[in-house]
């Protein structure tokens, strides 16, 4: 769309934000949706006898019983997160990984076959997968060669059916943080939702956008317990947004989307923030050492700056190096076919021993 024709969707003549609340964004069927009312929604107090949810009253064939349905709103976990993040419970959504939050945003705000979203490749692949599942058109505006937003290209791609813009920062697979001022430009000048995915924010020098929730009503911030918190196997993702957006997401989600075991283990983990902070510090130290070690190899052409727990390495022979490492039992990620990532391997920062094994093994690569 030509830029002069597009300005009505990007900002008004006075430069004020065109975002006017969720009324024009929300799907009509979601506005009318009456959510499923579970037994634990209807009664949330304490009792000695629960005969309301058709559960197995005898327990579970496990050491710990999981015969009762979990809290559908995960209030205790949200209390712990609220204290850590400085965000009220009413502004927190918990899902079965961040992927569930992404899917719910599509299902809540994008009309299949009508609306579109803007993605900025190279970026996290689930934005595209969820769009395809929900029959939502994708408008790709690639990052610049230095992996930053192309604001002019985004402005030209927006039309009246553009509902969301996804920005991953620190970005996956490039590892860099997106310029904060550029994200703020989107938030201030786009009438739809700006979804900032901060899965790797714990490793970044940038501060989280959750501090801006009160300033931008169209901001959704995604985070996860999978990375720095080491709970990838539990599948606990977070979304932070206005109370209005969180209410919509809670209405659309399945009633018991985060299981009891994940809630209990997440609570235990959230009580050990000192351990997590120590791991983050060690990860950053090991990341720097890994970068220095990889620079010595002739087949390494470039190592891009990273604010994450991985590095993107440009090589002369990505497929050959990948296959060589596989033969030695070492698995990295071949990203050489991803847009703007030709020749690149993505290498996660491991333990000191794992990083040493990688570097020593690469010395034998011919």
UniProtKB/TrEMBL annotation:
Reactions listed under catalytic activity:
L-histidinol phosphate + 2-oxoglutarate = 3-(imidazol-4-yl)-2-oxopropyl phosphate + L-glutamate
Q: What is this protein called?
A: Histidinol-phosphate aminotransferase
**According to the UniProt entry, which residues carry N6-(pyridoxal phosphate)lysine?**
227
HAMAP family cross-referenced by the UniProt entry: HisC_aminotrans_2 (MF_01023)
Q: Name the domain of life this protein comes from.
A: Bacteria
Q: Which UniProt keywords apply?
A: Amino-acid biosynthesis, Aminotransferase, Histidine biosynthesis, Pyridoxal phosphate, Transferase
Q: What is its EC number?
A: 2.6.1.9
Query: Which proteins does it associate with, and in what oligomeric form?
Result: Homodimer.
Recorded GO MF terms: histidinol-phosphate transaminase activity; pyridoxal phosphate binding
Matches recorded under PANTHER family:
HISTIDINOL-PHOSPHATE AMINOTRANSFERASE, HISTIDINOL-PHOSPHATE AMINOTRANSFERASE-RELATED
What pathway does the UniProt record associate with this protein? Amino-acid biosynthesis; L-histidine biosynthesis; L-histidine from 5-phospho-alpha-D-ribose 1-diphosphate: step 7/9; Lipid metabolism
Q: Which InterPro entries match?
A: Aminotrans_II_pyridoxalP_BS (IPR001917), Aminotransferase_I/II_large (IPR004839), HisP_aminotrans (IPR005861), PyrdxlP-dep_Trfase (IPR015424), PyrdxlP-dep_Trfase_major (IPR015421), PyrdxlP-dep_Trfase_small (IPR015422)
Q: Which co-factors does it depend on?
A: pyridoxal 5'-phosphate
UniProt lists the family membership as follows: Belongs to the class-II pyridoxal-phosphate-dependent aminotransferase family. Histidinol-phosphate aminotransferase subfamily.
- Which terms under GO biological process does the entry name? L-histidine biosynthetic process
């Amino acid at each position: 769309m030509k830029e002069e024709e597009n300005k009505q969707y990007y900002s008004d003549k006075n430069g004020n934000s065109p975002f006017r609340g969720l009324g024009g964004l929300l799907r009509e069927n979601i506005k009318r949706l009456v959510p499923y009312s579970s037994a634990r929604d209807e009664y949330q107090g304490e009792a000695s006898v629960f005969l309301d949810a058709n559960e197995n009253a005898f327990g579970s064939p496990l050491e710990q019983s999981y015969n009762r349905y979990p809290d559908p709103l995960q209030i205790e976990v949200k209390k712990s997160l609220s204290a850590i993040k400085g965000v009220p419970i009413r502004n927190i959504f918990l899902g079965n990984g961040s992927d569930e939050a992404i899917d719910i945003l599509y299902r809540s705000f994008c009309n299949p076959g009508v609306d579109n979203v803007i993605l900025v490749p190279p970026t996290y692949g689930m934005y595209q997968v969820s769009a395809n599942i929900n029959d939502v058109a994708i408008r790709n505006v690639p990052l610049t060669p230095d992996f930053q937003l192309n604001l002019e290209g985004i402005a030209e791609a927006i039309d009246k059916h553009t509902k969301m813009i996804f920005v991953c920062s620190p970005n996956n697979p490039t590892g860099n943080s997106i310029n904060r001022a550029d994200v703020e430009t989107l938030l201030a000048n786009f009438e739809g939702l700006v979804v900032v995915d901060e899965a790797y924010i714990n490793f970044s020098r940038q501060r989280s956008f959750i501090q801006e929730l009160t300033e931008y009503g169209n901001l959704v911030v995604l985070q996860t317990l999978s990375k720095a918190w080491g709970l990838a196997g539990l599948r606990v993702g977070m979304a932070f947004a206005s109370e209005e957006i969180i209410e919509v997401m809670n209405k659309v989600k399945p009633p018991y989307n985060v299981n009891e075991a994940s809630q209990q283990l997440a609570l235990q983990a959230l009580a050990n923030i000192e351990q997590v902070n120590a791991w983050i510090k060690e990860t950053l130290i090991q990341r720097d050492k890994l970068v220095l070690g990889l620079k010595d190899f002739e087949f390494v052409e470039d190592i891009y700056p990273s604010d994450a727990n991985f590095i993107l390495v440009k090589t002369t022979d990505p497929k050959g190096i990948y296959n060589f490492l596989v033969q030695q039992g070492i698995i990295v990620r071949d990203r050489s076919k991803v847009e703007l990532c030709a020749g690149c391997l993505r290498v996660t920062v491991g333990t000191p021993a794992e990083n040493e094994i990688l570097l020593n093994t690469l010395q034998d690569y011919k």
